[in-house]
Specification:
alpha/beta, Spore Coat Polysaccharide Biosynthesis Protein SpsA, Chain A
Length: 306
Amino acid sequence: MQIWGHCRFSYFGRSDTGREIDTLETAFAKLWHPVRMAVRFHLFETLLLPAIRAQTDPGFMFQIVTSTRMPDLFQDRLDRVTADIPQLRILRTEETDLNRALHPTMLEAGADGSGAAAHFRVDDDDAVSVDYVARLRAAARRVDPGGMVTFPTGVIGFLHEGAARHAPFQKHSIAIGLALVEPPGGRNPFRIQHVVHASRVPSYCDPTFPAYHYTLHSANNTAGYGRIFHLDTGEHRRIQRLMQQHPEFAEGALTTPAAEAALAAAFPHTTGEALRAAILRAGDPVGLAEEMGFPAEPFAPPLTAG
């Protein structure tokens, strides 16, 4: 069975940015603000891409969809940091409807006569474990076309009051690594509300291994675009709950034994300490922008004729 991964990278369209960014001017001012983009690239390059390179099963495709209108500075860096991954390709599109943009890909997958394919999703600031593709391949064989696969167990990394921490995390039908088994031309994994979809179709759930790294940081899309970055992540209700659930954090601990064991199993190419350093570095968006050579001010959208 073919395995296809899908990742949006600062894609300008309804399925990614929601109602807050609906004009090109707003995209340049907020979605593609250089300081925000520095955080996105930093986590993309230190969390997601190393995990894609390290997959124990190399027989998969991984497609990143982005917008042709994204500034050239970011297009060039995207090409450069992904060039050494043979399974990876970039889809640049003018489409603002993600379903239409991905339709040719969904037609391509399995059209070689292999039948249904498994399509998983992951955001550019999260990561899947190095055995994720191998696990998905085995799980997808148990699922009829139209079904889904969920690996609910993982680790959450977050920034809180100047410290990066890790804790175990579990959520059924979490979006990270969620996969649909679809025939050629079927629905893509962004076309569903993942929690709702799990109540409507047959699914296979394997909670027995750590499958992902879920990252909360200074430029999370879910925090909204009212501010370019959000340094006071202590406002986040999920982080508040995590701090309460793990009293050792109040005593200065940065992680838990269960989280460290999960990180070692899921991401053997790195360490929990290195991952926390990456999350902590995301707490300095302006410094990251300077380091990457990005300007501090947003780009202006190109002038249009007439």
